[in-house]
## 1
Amino acid sequence: MSGRVLVGVKRVIDYAVKIRVKPDNSSVVTDGVKHSMNPFCEIAVEEAVKMKEKKLIKEVVAVSCGPQQAQETIRTALAMGADRGIHVEVTGKDYETLGPLQISKIMAALAKKEEAQLIILGKQAIDDDCNQTGQMTAALLDWPQGTFASEVSLEGDKIKVVREVDGGLETIKINVPAVITADLRLNTPRYATLPNIMKAKKKKIANMKPADLGVDITSRLEVLRVDEPPQRQAGVKEHKHGARNLAEGTL
Amino acid sequence: MLNDAETKKLYSVQLCSVRGRRSTLIVHTLCCRRSVKGHLVSDMANPFRGQVIKLYRTLLYLGRDYPQGSAYFKERLKFAFMKNKDVTDPDKIQKLVARGNSLIKELEAMCFLRKYEVMKKKYCQTKK
């Protein structure tokens, strides 16, 4: 299989930042907060780049949807080894309501347009924890899916995926083209070093709007309220002797 | 030491909004201070200047993800570099640069491990 791989990358609030909810409980504070690439998306990019280094695929295309700042995330992916980027511009209100359904419609349209053989996504984003985009994309394209992948290998014209499930590990073989979502143990993503970032500036990032792909991004969901998790209740301290007396009493 | 007016002039010379360039700005200021102090080291004569600047830029970039905070790291980094700014012996400079380069790998590993631990704790339930 020597084809094109689409990798979806998402710009999220950095994992180490303490999240704060806006006073009006409408959403979290994102202005002036450090953003970076979703860790699972980094793992997805790394897997695609590794496949390219093994000469199993020809081209890695990094895709991101969002405002102008999403280009930074695409540049990081390019610095990690992707060949070119596609930035689907979504701004303002549309961006606030952008969710897995809209992203999967965009990815499906791009996969058909770019004639991709494989789509690799992170299993979930650390900001919304949806874990839906990969599955929805596969359904829209009617492609097989290998989700929660902890190991991916190509065997002829099929892909062998070892999935991490609650019961343990499941090994499946799926046809190409397919959608794969990366789990934490798939690989160790490389660091995008400064010289690579400078080189990545020469790589192309195509710009387009969802309307260019014929995708309707109206949301079917409305966020009513965002709250902080409840404060931890103080634990009840047990009296040591009390518990012992209780045990002796029952005997 | 440079007075306020001279410092302002240096800053205005290389003011650029691209993040990578800002570190060049800081280093340029550092190097100029060195020459102003009268060490008779012209920018071109010192062969290690390029290496030192590259090292500083790389460490500054990696320090953004430092677990205990990028401001803390930046302060310590600047202090460490300024502490050795008067070293002129080529062997010593080489050793310091080599130590700095090994620090790059350590930093990458540390930042990655921390991220991995946090992700694992949050997303990978241990089998009971």
Note: The helical segments of chain A are 39-53, 70-80, 92-96, 100-114, 133-141, 194-200, 240-250.
## 2
Amino acid sequence: MKIYVGIDDTDSIEQGATGETAKQIIRIIEERRWGNCQGLTRHQLLLHPDIAYTSHNSSMCFTAEIETASLEPLIEAAAGCLERDSAPGSDPGLCVAAEEQLRDVESLIAYGYETKKRIITKGEAYELAGKLGVHLSEHGGAGIGVIGALAGVGLRMTNNDGRFQGRLELKVPGAIINVTEILCSNLVERVQSVDGYVLNKNEEVRLGHKLKTVLLGGKRTLLVYRREGALVWKTCTNAHLEHY
Amino acid sequence: MDDWIKKNKRGQVRFRGGSHDWLLAAGIAGNCPHFVLDDEDELLAEEERSCYNCRFRRWIDRYSFVCMKR
Ligand code: SF4
């Protein structure tokens, strides 16, 4: 079965990073041979002075293919990991949604988008999780990470939100590389301009210093841009990607 | 001119340069003893040492942040 695992609020201003906690859970799943995990993504939620996030209000999500029998031990292990590894003073939350058991994908996606627009309460998150039949639990502090954990899963299910964790290593910065070579790395599924044009296999891209990919159209996408009149595409910078 | 806007009701100071004043943010972080590079997934500026990449900047909306160390 395919599952979505969302976590949020495992860090404090002084220590921890939710991406690192997610990677730790992925390691546990793979070491125990419960299944294979795919692409860890970071999803931006509403930035607002009245929300008690640490510094950027983002949540993390990954998917995994597992046997049904592994679902319960996996939830238990992930919960244990959040309790052990989250920073003191954090408010960790965990969401695990099994695709085949999920009752209403559209509501979950709508909730994901809603968390980008307005302040959501913990009660709302639990109520929706109950209706949809997804696991949602808190593991310390005020537990408000459940709001983002559920949102991370909803936004991942849109197939059109979030940046993949980590940087890509293709060639040295400044190198010009064609799209075929980029796709052959198996780290990117599509190369696309910020305006939505999908590059063909013979087009060339100049690599920047920090290469990040985003989730667009269900594909791991390397975004590029080109100044008017220029022949070669360039990879986007972090600033270009801030709204993904 | 001060680079920070006076304390809000929580006692925090907001960066005057919004979310795209790369030079100012790099200049402040260059001289700041509290600078700590944030997690790689949260970096915004290309130059590593910048308030935009610092663990102690807290975004209050898409356009500005407060410094948790000032
Ligand atoms: S955000 Fe604050 S602590 Fe960080 S570098 Fe800027 S002034 Fe220093």
Note: Chain B has one domain: 5-67.
